[in-house]
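Bench notes, afternoon.
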Amino acid sequence: MPETHIASGKIREIYEIDDERLLLVASDRISTFDVVLPTEIPDKGRVLTGLSGYWFTVLGPIVPNHMLAIRDDGRSMECRRLEMLPIECVVRGYLAGSGWKGYRATGEVCGIRLPAGLRESDRLPEPIFTPATKAQSGHDENIDAEQAAELVGQDRFREVERIALGLYEHAAKYARERGIIIADTKFEFGLDDEGHLVLGDEALTPDSSRFWPADEYAPGGAQPSFDKQFVRDYCETLGWDKTAPGPELPDDVVAGTRARYVEAFERVTGIGFSEYVANPNVVLR
């Protein structure tokens, strides 16, 4: 029986396989400032699916995940259906992005008081859990622990916080040994039929994380990255008002962005990207 298309996200198309399984197909679309751009990044969807599959395998001993299989196209993942929790689970190990903006304004990030005198991109004394709401359109909004607990319940919130921090700390150490700093990342969790917490969506990709090259790390300003910051920086030069439609990307920005995504994949996994394209199951060893 053919799959039924049931939803479209900025990057993924979601299909129903049956009552228990979904097919998540990662496109090559790229969004910046919450606008999907008209230009695609070749192979980006394969990087997202392959890296997620690799991390699901590495992190499986910490928490179950929704992955069942990766299909031969390298961009389609068969997954268990879950009841997704209504919060984004963001873990920050470094002061960047909206965290840096909040800290400059208030000395806090999502209600968490941080030491005075920190610089942009500084490593935090310890990773912090900073949940956000899931926006159906526009930006996710940072919320504090009390607000998040109201959405999912106090006990579930504490479980999610503990597991998200554990996943980040394990992944950050793993990536650092391979030359990548994971400055921050976003996890999504759902519940299975028995109410157990399961890691869903994607995991630790350049779309859901800030990946910095460890050998170029220099706190005190913005860092070079393996994520879509390259595209954001280009778009910032255009005078674009950050509303749809977004600008076309020139060939050099497309090529540079693809190269950064592929390098992130290869550094983390130790697998050549062409090897993954030929046989996606190599990431599941």
